[in-house]
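Colleagues,

Please find the record for the two-part complex below.
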Amino acid sequence: MDGGNYSDVLGENLPVPSEVEGTPDYDTTIAGLDTNKNGIRDDVELAIFSEYPNSARTRAVLLQYALALQMEVTQGFLNEDIVNAIVEEDSRAGTCIADTLVPRKSPSSSRTYSDIEKIDAHTIFVDEKQFNNTARKTAKDKFYEYMGSYSNSPKPICDIDLSTLPN
Amino acid sequence: MRHRFIYIAQLISFVFAPFFVFAQTENLCSPTGYTILAINGILTNEETAKKNRNSLKNQLPEFFNNESITIDYLHNPSHFAGGGDIAKTVAQMMNDGKEVDDYDLTEMLQSASEKVKTRKLLVVGHSQGNFYANAFYKMAGTPSESTAVYSVATPSSYVAGGGEYITSETDKMIAGLVARVLRKDILPPNTRIEEVSGDIGLTAGHSFSDVYLKYRGAEIVGGIENALGKLRVNSPLEGSTSPTGEGREAALLQVRQQKSQKRLQIFWKASRLL
């Protein structure tokens, strides 16, 4: 997904449960299921597609954010450098959401708090899906204990060139 | 013998590593553009500190006076699972106006020296982070014309450089506990944010993003833009905020030396345990 995976955004690799086996239990482990191996938890990916079936751009930015959140709870080892690097990805994804879905009127204009609430509504939607039980919330809390003075990522804010998406 | 040589080599690289970092970054600061460094208070956990910084970044414009704004973050960590923080805060309050000099400040200066790429610099402190914002202004050694502080919910009696501040009279932590019990000569509240339902306890009315930015966002953005508008780039040696008055390089050298001393202390203390 990092660097842009258009097929994920367009739903070509969507981890739809098989009708025969039914919906799996997504909550047996902290990492959950990632059957299409794109780094995003299957149930979170499906929830994003279900909520935004008609906007590939919205899905793209939310999937980027979900990928960063999933990294927060799937590290085998934590230290300040690792955590800062992931928080930078998280913040980059948050900026991608903000600038794509609630852009400023111009680069020199500030946003209102109403704008911030619109941005927050999108991030909270993913946060709640991602950290949907105590074990995952605890893993996230442990992750943030290592956070230090993280920086701005030098990468472009969005993984995918959103202008190329159909809607 | 061979092990002793390795230890000495490690010690030399450990102690002198910061010199190279500073030497690289000092010459890279651009006269155009602005950097805003946010410093959290210790009552804010790391995740909330990230949220605060991101909310500030989202709310502020990308450009001011046709120059880009970079928003970064300096971590003000909690110690001993929060147990040491109260004592540290009280000590900072009692010594307000005097020079803060502790390991966290040294770390912040080090981090800033690696991050800041512009000569125009604004430090935004929240809560106890304002003690560090004020100390940063004095210790960073950057010219006073190009450095400023903006304070939110400050428990301090001043804003370094005469900067603006905002504190709500409904902030239970600052206008309540600090101003009424701990230290009465702090900067008085200068706004009133109506109490938010469900926001209760000692920290009610104190949140950076959920109270101050939410209900006084326009004022905070205006105050920050006002501060940015006053920043000027002059000769690096003019108007230094360095306590020695010898300019930025002298102060940075001082920080380097402090950092090296601290590292040396840690190294020797640790070595006694081996």
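The domain at 30-268 of chain B is CATH 3.40.50 (Rossmann fold).

Comments are welcome before we finalize the supplementary table.
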